[in-house]
Amino acid sequence: MDDFAEFYLSGKDAVFRAVLAAGGDRAGAEDAVAEAYARAYARWETVREHPNPLAWVLRVALNVRRSVWRRLRREVLGDPPEQSAAGLEPDGGLRRELAALPRRQREVVALRLLADLSVAETAALLGITEGSVNTHLHRAVQALRHRLHPTRLTGLKPTTEVAG
């Protein structure tokens, strides 16, 4: 099981960041990642033979998180309370803007940019085409650029002042 320990240590942070970015709070992401790795450990003989074991764990973690989210939405009207993810992101505003994206765009950003999966791996993991991955990523990046830097996109040119 030494190979599982290496697998866990090398991928746990990327999986956590991806699940957190895909939506939800820090505690929920931690729980989903822990559950996914527990399932991987229980099936390690099979999972290690998977073409991409990290993608398998990511998929399980996202599914666990999605199941918890659905249960919470049934039990509590509205969204679960937002919690800080200090130390995991450079800017709290970025996390808020990621959370504002549609679910599929959040998932694609999380898998492609945070977990560093290829387009093909992301497509297989989400059950969509590679073209859809590219489209969702493009739209997400455009939306984030617009929300985070709206003045850059308005066509306004910077003013120059003459020093006197």
From TrEMBL:
Gene3D superfamilies linked to this entry: 1.10.1740.10, Winged helix-like DNA-binding domain superfamily/Winged helix DNA-binding domain
User: Which PANTHER family does the annotation name?
Assistant: ECF RNA POLYMERASE SIGMA FACTOR SIGM, RNA POLYMERASE ECF-TYPE SIGMA FACTO
Alphabetical GO biological process terms: DNA-templated transcription initiation
Q: Which NCBIfam families match?
A: sigma70-ECF
- State the organism named in the record: Catellatospora citrea
| Protein's UniProt keywords contain DNA-binding | yes
For the HTH luxR-type domain, which residue ranges apply? 98-154
The record's Pfam families line, in alphabetical order, gives:
Sigma70_r2, Sigma70_r4_2
- Which family does the record assign? Belongs to the sigma-70 factor family. ECF subfamily.
Picking any one GO molecular function of the record gives: DNA binding
Q: Which domain of life is it from?
A: Bacteria
How is this protein named in the record?
A: HTH luxR-type domain-containing protein
Record keywords: DNA-binding, Sigma factor, Transcription, Transcription regulation
